Amino acid sequence: MQPPYSNSHDVSLCRIDKHTCGACCWGPNIKRSHLVSRLRRQRDLFRHISSAGTLPGHARLFLHEILATRGMNLLWAVLVRLPGIGKRRKKTIAQSIVCPFMGFDNDQETCVGCMIHPTRFEGHDVRSAVAFALLPGITCGDANYVCTGCTRFNDMPHDQTQVFLNAVTALDWYEYTQTVRAFACTAVVPRPEATSESNCS
Ligand code: SF4
Ligand code: SF4
Asked: Is 39 a pocket residue for ligand 1 (Cβ < 6 Å)?
């Protein structure tokens, strides 16, 4: 897992125009219907533990993680530590996990975002300390992380970036995320109808 919209490039695909990408914050094997209910529930839960502009303390964030995963993080914490199968389990979990701090960014559910992103809390960054706190080897990535898709986008000639942006105009948050994921893998500029389910693994 890596932090969205945190790279130092001129243009970030994490948030561009009305689009938001969540590819760093949920695994590639998650179905859209499951994601929708998770992101909705997590947004609503987070509203209960936070007050506007104030970052909740670590204990409240930990409670949020337990509630968001319905306690599954406690079970996973045991499974990934089991000798022999722990490593395999960790890989499976990482493919299908949703970060508890990802949520819909609005009531209309048209965009997604990290609910503890430092831009919301005057630069205070607790993401790597609290996200997946019980799961060794699964973390929110370095704050300076730049994904392959962003790098490719910034390396493209201007007319190609316009082709990309035109192609994604009509996509919603899920389709856009899938497209950025695919673009990172293949470097193929998406066509307007491209909403591939592909991933890099
Ligand atoms: S804390 Fe979670 S939602 Fe936020 S950037 Fe990290 S992985 Fe994504
Ligand atoms: S895959 Fe790239 S654009 Fe998408 S959230 Fe991650 S860093 Fe941002």
From this structure: no
Q: How many whole angstroms separate alpha carbon 36 and alpha carbon 61? A: 21
Ligand 1 contacts CB of residue 38 (under 6 A): no
| Interaxial angle between packed helices 72-79 and 58-68, expressed in degrees from 0 to 180 and rounded to the nearest 10 | 90
Pick from 35, 68, 41: nearest CA to 175: 35
Q: Which two tokens stand for residue 179?
A: 């497209």
Q: Could you identify the residue written with the tokens 């992103």? A: 117
**Residues 55-78: pLDDT tens digits?**
999 999 999 999 999 999 898 888
54 by Cβ neighbours in 10 Å (0-12 / 13-18 / 19+) ranks as exposed
Strand 102-104 and strand 19-20: the pairing is: unpaired
> What is the per-residue pLDDT across 131-162, written as a single tens digit (0 to 9) for each?
998 888 888 888 888 899 999 999 999 999 99
- List the structure tokens of 63: 């409670």
> Which residue lies with its CA nearest to atom 1 of ligand 2?
23
Q: Which residue's CA is the nearest one to ligand 2's atom 6?
A: 24
